User: Which sequence fits this backbone?
């Protein structure tokens, strides 16, 4: 299977700092790729760069979709090509009905899709469809709405930035099921998370450290490495380059992985 | 008292029947449903210029209107204890391109009465029109009044409106005002509300407007929370573009124990438009509290990017955010 979306040597700078350095990743239809890393390591920056958000234009490298260079494409253009993002901290929209928001990405107004998407995240459409996506929602409810929005959109690449944050522990299984369902219906998923329950549903994983992907491989191994080598340094953010002991090599998918 | 159902008026085809038709069209443009005006169960008042085209009272709701120079004087009352099931419909307007309309209105909502008014004010052809509304509203003990006023001023902006309302709410009463001017041009909106709120009352003033061209929005709201546990909210949502300007001036006084007031203003600007908000908090009782919040500026970047990530272009995203905000 060939990747439909490839990130090649992507570098992102902000003022004098390098936020992302030589990132290489590839995405395949129906596959879930998890991105691990400490706070401030560059996970969300990669998500924003991939989405084309303002201030996240790469200094070098390119993003190719179906062979076409979309590095300079606008957010709208990328969304219309099938890339979308569920923000870690979604904004609130005063007066915008949840049903309308969820239906935005679904193309033509489609009530059935909206109802199905809301119910997939355990938000009854009768209760929530006409409520505003505003600050009267709890953090967890708003996150669910964000997930429903992407679920209804069925993007080719769904970027999920910590979809589990703010979601109660009992509902993590539901989030996992939803992500798996998205993948089963053909979406590639870039999943940013710290939750072991979600890491296990991924097909591949990468570890990002100080803006560089230092390891790409199987989710269990990458997660184990992350937990053993990185999480113990949580309190010394930015001061430790946790490089793997073995050099990295390119995988057949164009990704890098640690030599065994 | 004149209590003429509109259907009778139009059937009899008086000399101004054509104007009635125009007013019904104008009413529709302002968001109203002309069928409501023909229902015998709905109290209605229709005024075009200084002519009372229709006035229909129902049991417990009395509407009386008489022409004055350039307008109409109206007295509207709801008997004590009456629960008015269907909203009272008011329709004011000026059909010609030029004219002055003066409406002087007295509202008296009896004790324990509950009523909702839907007022549609339409000036679809306005090129040089002035509309002055002076209203005195009295809300009795434990009564409630919801007053929703929707305007349509046509597309030229050649209109000035000066709605001035003095509202007095007795103990336990509730007053909600929704002023909406979000279609077509504004011209000059000069809104002035002054509310005196007694013990255990609730007052909510909501103003929503979208301006363009050289439209001007000026909102003056004064809420006096004079009674114990009185609650007040003054909320403004204004979007202006082009050369339009918006000025929201809100004052809330907390003058009694347990009084709680809040002022919440959001103004979105684009192009060369300007906006200001001047909240004034005046608290004279140590157990009262008044707060305010304001946001003025362009549309939030992250809100816009979120909608663009669902496929909307920038213009569509901004439009949706503003339309939702003033919904």
Assistant:
């Amino acid at each position: 299977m060939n990747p439909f979306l490839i990130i090649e040597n992507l570098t992102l700078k902000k003022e004098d700092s390098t936020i992302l350095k030589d990132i290489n990743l590839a995405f395949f239809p129906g596959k879930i790729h998890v991105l691990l890393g400490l706070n401030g390591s560059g996970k969300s920056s990669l998500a924003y760069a991939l989405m084309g958000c303002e201030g996240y234009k790469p200094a070098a490298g390119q993003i190719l979709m179906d062979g076409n260079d979309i590095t300079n494409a606008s957010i709208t253009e990328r969304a219309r090509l099938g890339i979308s993002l569920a923000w870690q901290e979604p904004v609130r929209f005063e007066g915008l009905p949840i049903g309308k928001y969820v239906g935005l990405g679904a193309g033509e107004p489609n009530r059935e899709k909206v109802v199905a998407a809301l119910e997939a995240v355990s938000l009854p459409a009768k209760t929530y469809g006409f409520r505003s996506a505003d600050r009267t929602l709890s953090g967890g409810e708003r996150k669910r709405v964000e997930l429903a929005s992407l679920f209804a959109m069925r993007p080719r690449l769904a970027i999920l930035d910590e979809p589990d944050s703010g979601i109660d522990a009992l509902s993590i299984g539901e989030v996992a099921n939803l992500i798996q369902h998205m993948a089963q219906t053909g979406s590639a998923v870039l999943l940013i998370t710290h939750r072991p329950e979600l890491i296990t549903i991924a097909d591949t994983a990468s570890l990002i450290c100080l803006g560089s992907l230092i390891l790409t491989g199987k989710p269990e191994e990458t997660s184990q490495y992350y937990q053993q080598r990185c999480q113990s340094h949580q309190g010394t953010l930015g001061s430790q380059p946790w490089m793997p002991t073995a050099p990295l090599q390119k995988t057949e998918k164009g990704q890098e992985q640690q030599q065994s | 008292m004149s209590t003429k159902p509109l259907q009778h008026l139009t059937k009899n085809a008086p000399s101004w029947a054509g104007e009635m038709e125009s007013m019904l069209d104008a009413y529709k443009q302002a968001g109203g449903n002309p069928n409501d005006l023909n229902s015998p169960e709905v109290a209605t008042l229709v005024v075009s210029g200084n002519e009372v085209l229709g006035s229909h009272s129902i049991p417990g709701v009395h509407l009386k209107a008489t022409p004055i120079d350039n307008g109409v004087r109206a007295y509207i009352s709801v008997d004590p204890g009456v629960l008015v099931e269907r909203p009272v419909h008011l329709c004011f307007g000026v059909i010609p391109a030029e004219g002055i309309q003066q409406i002087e209105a007295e509202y008296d909502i009896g004790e324990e009465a509950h009523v909702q008014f839907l007022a549609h004010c339409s000036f679809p052809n306005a090129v040089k029109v002035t509309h002055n509304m002076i209203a005195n509203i009295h809300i009795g003990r434990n009564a409630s009044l919801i007053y929703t006023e929707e305007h349509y001023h046509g597309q030229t902006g050649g209109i000035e409106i000066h709605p001035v309302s003095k509202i007095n709410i007795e103990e336990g009463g509730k007053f909600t005002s929704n002023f909406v001017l979000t279609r077509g041009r504004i011209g000059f909106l000069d809104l002035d509300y002054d509310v005196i709120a007694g013990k255990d009352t609730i007052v909510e003033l909501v103003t929503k407007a979208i301006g363009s061209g050289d439209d001007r929005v000026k909102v003056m709201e004064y809420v006096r929370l004079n009674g114990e546990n009185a609650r007040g909210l003054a909320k403004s949502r204004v979007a202006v573009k082009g050369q339009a300007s918006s000025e929201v001036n809100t004052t809330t006084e907390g003058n009694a124990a347990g009084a709680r007031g809040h002022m919440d203003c959001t103004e979105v600007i684009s192009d060369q438009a300007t906006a200001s908000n001047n909240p004034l908090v005046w608290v004279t009782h140590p157990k009262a509290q008044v707060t305010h919040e304001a946001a003025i500026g362009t549309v939030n970047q992250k809100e816009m990017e979120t909608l663009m990530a669902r496929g909307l272009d920038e213009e569509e995203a901004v439009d949706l955010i503003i339309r939702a905000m003033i919904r």
